[in-house]
Amino acid sequence: MLREEKSSDKLKFHVFRDERFIDLNLYQFGWERTVPNHSYGPHARNHYLFHYVISGRGLLFANEQEYNITPGHGFLLSPGQVSTYRADGADPWVYVWLEFDGLRAHEGVHLAGLSAAKPIYTPRSPEAGKMLEDEMMYIVNHSAASPIHLIAHGFLFLDTLAQCSAQRRSGGERRVRDFYIKEALTFIEQNYQRDISIEEIAAVSGLNRSYFGKVFRDAVGESPQAYLLHYRMARAAQLLKETRLSIGEIAQQVSYDNQLHFSRAFKNVHGVSPREYRSTHLIDPDKPAR
């Protein structure tokens, strides 16, 4: 649900706080008419953050480079990337932004030709840029819509980001690789509850482990081990919110025989213990949870 909103003729800001979505999730989004020399950073973010500049201009400092951002262009800040951006002193920018992440987020960003090393977005035409702006503004202007509705438009944003990009990558070069990755992701989704190994996942995909690890990281943005951990912890978070299973029972549901090891892994991913997470996220807190 949305729990924080600010709105004026210079700023619209919304925080999305529904963490049930695994493939793609939104974290915050908004629109701003900045003041001259408005600056943010240096800062490293936990998720992808994309800005699309509607008017005005400014600078992005990332990768030890300075990028001049003008109207009709955008810039992507990747997780863990330290950056600073600053509005122009005479012609400060107006932009719309969206912070997002999820198991499928890297794929959409990759298809758009964006990465930490290539953060600048150029649409293939002014009309294409307007399509992207409109999709982002739809999300900003419909913050009261249901979470599923907003996540659906989050996927439309990712698709528009790729389809409208001048740097869009061809799907043909990915066809064979995507087949292998689809096999791996399907296997993980169907078997995460048991103690599966990376060798087993690679074998299902028909690849040796070392090559599979490279292909998987290129496609998904993280190693198979990290993906499997994050998938299990996302499922665990869902069970903590939607069921009254004990912590030990949930640990077993995501392939952890040792509850202590599970709690440590969960805290490393979510920042709080399973019990603390449940205390603030349980959908029906009036019913006791063990």
Structure report:
This protein is α+β, with helices and mostly antiparallel strands and 290 residues long. It folds into 2 domains: 2-163, Jelly Rolls; 174-281, Orthogonal Bundle (Arc Repressor Mutant, subunit A). The protein contains 10 helices and 11 strands. It has helices spanning 105-111, 126-141, 147-163, 175-191, 198-205, 209-220, 224-242, 247-253, 259-270, 274-281, and strands spanning 2-7, 11-16, 25-33, 39-44, 48-55, 58-62, 65-69, 74-77, 82-87, 94-101, 120-121. The chain has a 7-stranded antiparallel β-sheet, covered by helices on one side. α4 (175-191) packs across α5, α4 (175-191) crosses α6 and α7 (224-242) packs across α9. The longest helix has 19 residues, at 224-242.
Can you give keywords for this protein?
Jelly Rolls; about 290 residues; about 40% helix; alpha+beta; four-stranded antiparallel β-sheet; seven-stranded antiparallel β-sheet; 2 domains; single chain; Arc Repressor Mutant, subunit A
